[in-house]
Amino acid sequence: NSGLAGKAGKELGDDHRTYESEYGEPYETEDNEAADLSNLLADQMTPSYGKSAIKVDNVCTRRRVGDHMCPELFILGVQKGGTSSLWVFLVTSTELKIQTGLNLYEEYAMPKEMHFFDKQSFFAEGVDSYAEHFEVRDEESQLSLDATPAYSRYARVPPLMVSTINMERSRFIITVRDPVHRGYSWYTHILQRLIRMPRFDQAYQVFDYKFSLMSKYMPKLINECVQRWMKYPKLVFQHCWHLTDNVRRTGVLVEETGLETIYPWIPSSIFTDGLYGYMMLHWFRFIRPNLFCIIFYEKLVESFADEIQHIGPCLKPFGREILESDAARGLPLVNHIKCKTCKNFERLVDEELSAVGRKLNEELFTRSNDVFRELMRDHFNRTGMADWEKAYTL
Ligand SMILES: Nc1ncnc2c1ncn2[C@@H]1O[C@H](COP(=O)(O)OS(=O)(=O)O)[C@@H](OP(=O)(O)O)[C@H]1O
After folding, report:
1. Which residues pair with 174 in a beta bridge?
2. Is a pLDDT exceeding 60 seen at residue 165?
3. What contacts 12, CB < 8 A, 6 or more positions away?
4. pLDDT at 22
């Protein structure tokens, strides 16, 4: 593993204290992250954003026939944004010929998700190991996809990607969804799949496992951070996302249960992962906007054939396009967790979720959505999008 990927991994490993991540493995803290990220990758940030001089020399940038193939198409997020269905659509298309990974690092991950950039232990294995998870390139035109929706929610991922992959060729897809519904879906996901892990159970127990109580307490705390950094919108995400020390220090007494928060980043991620405006500003510091394709979950569900065309610019450089006949297949329904057997699940009917959502918008999401709407207008020429709050006005 030559080049900057190794250097970045080593320096991060050497310089940062390690804690256990939410999945029980070490990750770096985000102490002085602004300084760390910008110093570490200052050289690489400019070329990736400017006129694309590739400085990294590794298996991803050499891309030789006969070598394992690094992905050049990514679904970065967001978690619970319909990414599994989108992945199924893309990799089952006989027209598009997009290849998925040969095998995964993690036995229990969704088949689409490599988690190379968000899990420190995988990244530490190096870029050659990443490529080896994909097929050997038989011809120049082959294209592989890494669809790991967790990437978008880790502030450290974009600089690591820039220091590793072939930035000249790569394209990045993100689907977004009403942050309230996304949050509720993520809460449901945790109750069904992750609650068996003691830290998830303890974190949720504090709130009597209720989404409504998490929505009452966590956004206030997150918003204090957001307000503090609002003067520098590009820095909000890296200072306020779910794994910052700021969030770790956050203690709050939940009056209804009489318990203090434990592992506060677990419930806080339900909300911070939905700060799309600040999240995208962070990504755009490292990767220029025209390499992204951003699509809307609600539009995918309502009018798939139209919305899916918005990933066209991310396929075109690879000589691919979505044909009408392909789009007519529609969005498959994958990964719908009913939580029928979830213990302690707070099932909120529409009206209840609307009431919770109204407050979440007031307190947290509207400002971030405003930023996001501006980005959609300025960089993607899409206006009238992301008006999720409308559904919550009385
Ligand atoms: N075709 C179609 N129509 C409507 N909704 C759909 C469809 N396909 C996926 N979904 C919903 O997308 C949610 C899962 O998103 P992800 O696959 O991105 O989740 S994950 O982060 O990979 O776990 C999950 O949302 P919730 O059901 O609200 O939890 C899925 O039901």
Report:
1. 77, 294
2. yes
3. 28, 36, 40, 120, 156
4. 37
Name the helix (H) or strand (E) containing 34.
Answer: helix 33-49
The residue ranges of DSSP E strands in the chain, in sequence order, are: 18-20, 26-28, 73-77, 145-147, 171-176, 253-254, 259-260, 292-296
Give the closest residue to 211 by CA, choosing from 189, 234, 237. Answer: 189
CB-ligand 1 contact for 336 (6 Å cutoff): yes
The string of pLDDT tens digits covering residues 122-161 is 999 999 999 999 999 999 999 999 999 999 999 999 999 9
Question: What separation in Å is there between the alpha carbon of 391 and the centre of ligand 1?
Answer: 20
The pLDDT score that the predictor gives to residue 4 is: 31
What is the three-class DSSP state of 192?
helix
**185 annotated to bind ligand:** yes
From the CB of 152, is ligand 1 less than 6 Å away? no
Greater pLDDT, 316 or 28:
316
Ordered by start, the domain boundaries in the chain are: 3-177+289-327
Tokens (6 digits) for 150: 């967790």
CB neighbour list of residue 362: distance below 8 Å, 6 or more residues apart: none
pLDDT digits (tens, 9 = 90+) for 68-121: 999 999 999 999 999 999 999 999 999 999 999 998 998 777 789 999 999 999
Please state the atom number of ligand 1 nearest to the C-alpha of residue 81: 18
User: Is 193 flagged in the annotation as binding?
Assistant: no
ipTM of the complex: 0.99
Report d(CA 233, CA 227) in Å as an integer.
10
Structure token digits, residue 117: 């950039």
| CATH T-level fold of 3-177+289-327 | Rossmann fold (3.40.50)
Instruction: Confirm or reject: Cβ of 82 under 6 Å from ligand 1.
Output: yes
pTM for the predicted model, two decimal places:
0.89
Q: Cβ distance 156 to 37 under 8 Å?
A: yes
Active-site annotation holds for 80:
yes
Q: Determine the Cα–Cα distance for residues 282 and 125; give it in Å rounded to an integer.
A: 26
Confidence bin at 393 (pLDDT 50/70/90): confident
Give the integer Cα–Cα distance in Å for 157 and 151. 6
